[in-house]
């Protein structure tokens, strides 16, 4: 297993099919535009690749600081390709992100997960994450 940061637009397009398994409504063009803006805001996208160099899992993260969580890693996107689920890849990539956060002086790792993603909730709880709040959303 090998973790690589996705930096270029070409690399982004290579991992896009896996990202679209989580973010199903994103087009290639919109993804490229958003990625350019997100990188300016400290977003990083990491891919986990298997021995055949296939992208099996992705994590989109940023280091943030606020009064509640102090300096922390926020996980915006975490997805394992359908064909590679339940093989421990999510655990490997999440562990990498946790270590990366520690190396960068973060105190915690934070994420949100939609109500319907019951399997994801079980995964996070198995990994030692606690449910601590609801997330609210309003279109502007």
TrEMBL record:
InterPro entries: Acyl_CoA_acyltransferase, GNAT_dom. This is N-acetyltransferase. Residues 1-140 form the N-acetyltransferase domain. GO terms for molecular function: acyltransferase activity, transferring groups other than amino-acyl groups. PROSITE patterns: GNAT. Signal peptide: none annotated. It holds the Pfam family Acetyltransf_1.
